[in-house]
Amino acid sequence: MKNIETPIIETPMMLDNVSIMPYQSIKFALSLFLLLSALIIISAGAIHIDIRYLNDNIGENSLTEYLQQTYLLITVVLFALLCIRHPKNRGFYVLVSSFFCVLLIRELDAFFDQISHGFWVYPAALVTVFAIVYAALNVKTTIEPLGAYIKHNSFGLMLGAMVTLLIFSRLFGMGDLWHGALHDSYARIVKNCVEEGVELLAYSLILFSAGWYYWSVSSKSH
User: Fold this and answer.
1) What's the confidence (pLDDT) of residue 222?
2) How many CB atoms lie within 10 A of CB 45?
3) CB neighbours of 110 closer than 8 A, spacing ≥ 6?
4) Does the structure show a pLDDT above 50 at 148?
5) Quick one: which of 172, 50, 61 has its CA closest to 108?
6) Which stretches does DSSP call E strand in the chain?
7) Residue 12 in this model has a pLDDT that exceeds 90
8) Mean pLDDT over residues 111-122, rounded?
9) Half-sphere exposure of 54 (CA within 13 A, CB side)
10) Secondary structure of 176-213 in the HEC alphabet?
11) CA distance 213 to 154
């Protein structure tokens, strides 16, 4: 019996739920690498400028802090734009943009301290209550889009960034750790540099993940 060869069918790969051929996926991955690299270089450059040229201890008025706030602001705006343009997913986008808005308010605590020490808590609480109430009243536009977002390729990066920001940066930036490591050579600038540097890295990844998701959703809607 003559063997019949089964033809090899080039199967498209799935990336961002869009069917693309392998060479396109490689090109896309390379583009992500280059864009993320550029963002990380900018972030690292800010720390170098603060330490080497501005002789700054990376305090509230440092370039590093300003960049953190800028990254957060852009992230809030991206999800807010999605909220406006995609009403079927509005509950989810309100929840996410509000979450990052609260983080931004926390980063601006020095500004709010000019009103009263710890005043940032009040606008942060207001935004939090609004987001929770809105999401609760719009469950359908919150839960289903959340499930879809978890399946999106950018979610893994966002998850890692959030763990880095909320857990690792806090544990790694503890004063006791750096007192123990440096002993009599302890200098607060070292602790600040490490802690704020890790936070800036996390915010960079958050922004990149948000931008990736925004681009993916926007490109499908056209």
Assistant:
1) 62
2) 12
3) 60, 61
4) yes
5) 61
6) 13-15, 18-20
7) no
8) 93
9) 15
10) HHHHHHHHHHCCHHHHHHHHHHHHHHHHHHHHHHHHHH
11) 6
